[in-house]
Each structure stands twice: as C-alpha cells, then as structure tokens.
Amino acid sequence: MNMNREEYAAYAGRHMPRSKAGRNMLRAFVIGGLICTLGQGLHSLYAWLGLREDAAGAAVSVTLIFLGALLTGLGVYDRLAKFGGAGTLVPITGFANAVAAPALEYKTEGRIAGTAAKMFLIAGPVIVYGIGTGALYGMILWLAGL
C-alpha cells in the first residue's frame, strides 16, 4: 500500500479512536463540583449550628475526610473515581481515599506490617513535602519580617 503523508494522515484520522477528553473533563468537573458543593453545604450547616468560621472550616475538613475514608472502605469511592476521574482526586476526599485505600489493600499482612506501614504509601510524600514546604515558607516569611 503506497501512501503519501497526506493520504496516511487521512487514513489514520478515519481509524483513530475518538478522544474521550471532553466527556472526562465534564465528568471530573461535575463530580469535583458536587464534592465541593457538599463541603460548602456542610460549612453553612455548621455555621448555622453556631460554630465560628474557623471551627466550621475544620469541622468540614474532618467530615469530608471521614466520608472519603468511609466511602473508600465501602468500595463506593472507587466506583465514583472511575466515573469522575480527577474530580475525585483534587478535593480533600481524594486525600482520604489515598490514605485509606492502601491500608485496606494490605490489611491481610497484619496491623503493623500491612495497614500501618502501607497507609501512607501514596499520601506520605504529599504530607512530607507539604509540611516541608510549609516550614520553608514560614521561615522565609519569618526572615523577611512578615
């Protein structure tokens, strides 16, 4: 089969699978938005119940982390992540999933060598670099006199 570049590009274009990027981005946007909307709703609820602004924010974080870990343990978060993709990774629930999933996967190896050791397999570097960066940023601000 002799083809020039243009003919080959047209042939390849006809047989190439269609990109699912638009659909995937829409799903990620919707699922991530729903998670964030849930967080805002919880914040409003906690404020309505009488918590101060900072306490309501902390309560929302704790609630979303708990829900993320619970849904991971029940196997719901994985199905949600398959559908919503990156929309489930960005919010704080994605962090809870990253901690809980390896812990569940390695629970057969025991509490210490399995669950405890593997719990921070994925999330550990995020925690370490987050704390390290925060400390470095704090030192820079302190040295700058801010």
Can you give a write-up of this model?
Helix 2 (21-48) packs across helix 3 and helix 3 packs parallel to helix 5. Helix content is 77%, strand content 0%. It has a domain at 5-105. The protein is built from seven helices and no strands. By secondary structure, the chain is an all-alpha fold.
Low-confidence stretches: none
Shape descriptor reads: extended
Rg (C-alpha, Å): 22 Å
Q: How much helical structure, as a percent, in the residues?
A: over 70%
- Summed over residues and divided by their number, the pLDDT gives a mean of 84
Class from secondary-structure proportions: mainly alpha
Secondary-structure element string? HHHHHHH
| Portion in beta strands | under 5%
What would a concise description of this structure say?
Helix content is 77%, strand content 0%.
